[in-house]
Amino acid sequence: MCQIFAGQDPTRYELETRSMRLNGQSTSIRLEKAFWTILDEMAQAEGLTTPVFVSKLHDEVLELHGEPRNFTALLRCTCLLQRERAGISAGSQIAAE
């Protein structure tokens, strides 16, 4: 079992920082590349750029719950939820790569 997880390509979990605007403010968001890949796919499916998609998500969260304590954690969980809804478990994706 550990071979599946330990043997994954290290570039998947390299951190990548992207700059964007949230609520009109410039900010940087740092996530693992695997999560950026999922966010890029989600944005593309909505016909948006990733910064616009993330900004819209941030706006919706503000409206529903107020300022999130940990927005990067929310983004990671968004990616996991998207995969769950698509019927792809995190484990089966790792095994497939």
Main sheet properties: 2 strands, antiparallel
Succession of helices and strands: HEEHHHH
Radius of gyration: 14 Å
Helix content: 55-70%
* CATH third-level topology: Ribbon-helix-helix fold
List how many beta strands DSSP finds. Answer: 2
Secondary structure category: alpha+beta
Arithmetic mean pLDDT: 89
Low-confidence region ranges:
93-97
- How much of the sequence is in beta strands? 15-25%
CATH superfamily: protein bp1543
3D shape:
globular
Please report the first level of CATH classification, the CATH class. Mainly Alpha
Strand order of the largest sheet: 1-2
CATH architecture: Orthogonal Bundle
Q: Counting H and I runs of at least 4 residues, what is the number of helices?
A: 5
The first-to-last residue Cα distance is 14 Å
Number of spatially distinct domains: 1
What this model shows, in words?
This protein has helices at 2-6, 33-45, 50-65, 71-85, 90-96, and strands at residues 15-22, 25-32. The protein contains five helices and two strands. It has a single domain, classed as protein bp1543 (Ribbon-helix-helix fold, Orthogonal Bundle). The longest helix is centred in the middle third of the chain and has 16 residues, at 50-65. The protein is α+β, with helices and mostly antiparallel strands and 97 residues long. Helix content is 58%, strand content 16%. The protein is globular and about 45 Å long.
